[in-house]
Design goal:
heterodimer; A: about 220 residues; mainly alpha; B: about 240 residues; two-stranded antiparallel ribbon; 7 helices; 2 strands; about 0% strand; globular; disordered N terminus; disordered C terminus
Amino acid sequence: MPEHLTLETVDHDGTVRQAYEDLPSSTRRSLLQRGLVAGGAVAAAGVTIGGLPKLAIGAPGPAQDTKILNFALTLEYLEAEFYTQAVAGGALAGESAEFARIVGAHERAHVAFLKSALGAKAVAKPTFDFKGTTENQAKFQATAVVLEDTGVAAYNGQGANVTKKVLAAAASIVSVEARHAAWIRDIVRKSPAPAAFDAAKTDAQILAAVNATGFIKG
Amino acid sequence: MTNVINEETLPFSLDEVDKDGAIAEAMDTLERFADSRAGFLRKAALAAGGVVGGGAALGALASPAGAATKGDVAILNYALTLEYLEAAFYTEAGRMGVLSGPLAQFARIVGQHERAHVAALKKALGSAAVASPTFDFKGTTEDATAFRQTAQVLEDTGVMAYAGQAPRIASNAVLGAALAIHTVEARHASWIRHLNDAPPAPRAFDQSKSMEQVLAAVGRTGFITRAPQTSTSGGRPRFTG
């Protein structure tokens, strides 16, 4: 079960999907197209840099930055709330408790940073239902592994879609997500660095995965 | 809103580094293994010149990096040099046989990753790839304590190096590759820190360092004993495997 708590189990109310579909259709369509094209190419880039076709994406700009920063903010809201609830629930002990406390502080700092960067354009925090994963240490650990690995893949998938200024900020966050991922993996005796190249995921892939957890209620 | 992120909205400066002096301390650790400061600085200057100058000069050559700009070729060669260093460090440590248990496993797996990074970067650069410098790890591969301290500094430095270059990369393909490597270096850093009983993720935002800062720091270690000798006659790679 643990590993397949993977963000692929449930999609009750489709809140994320709904929010995504509430966007103007042109924005949605172009994001999706860019995401799909860019993500596929970027994911492959780790192994075959040389033979890659050019990525067919639009030039990054302020409007696209806003969209992508809000996408990141939603993921950080989710992570922050997950750790905050896990610590508050008191079911964690030992290093897992320490991990949750420290990583929770980081994720809240990421939320604060992204909100400050977005200003009035920041999306509101959704409400969450972690379905018991914050109330049991083994479930917490398994979920944390998935969330952190997903965070890495999500940021890496957007690298080419943002302006350089946003990329610089994102680069300072993504490696911290990778440190979290390796840390919790080592705690649960999984390889901290399972591959020589981390995969990237498109926004559509991330949305589908997060949506499938049912963690976001609305 | 024209700029979502600007100096005013950033809650921290991306240049704000080393609040707690952890990096300076780590660099000091490395320097203890080096022989003379004057020597390091001279070597650092040589190394920086070799890497940056060599990369720029070779950028004009046709390579599998294809449309890669001169700047991207220089960045890839800089990354390749750091990866040569890391790969050689772990390969040598594995060969010395002084590591055991989880530390030996770390060196084995991370060594594989660094060699894979070298291979990918060389493939991307093709004939524009710089050759490997020669290294002297000053005993840090022959002693478990020195190894673990050095590995931590090298990996943390790798993270800062890739973060410093990501926004400077022109090609999306090169950027994608750099990001895929960047977070793996961060995983390595976290892993060795965990083995060292150091905080795996010491802060909410990782720092970045410029090429000059990283090369100067690497130069100070004295680990690079001979700068990459870039060919002036066509840049055929000296090593192919």
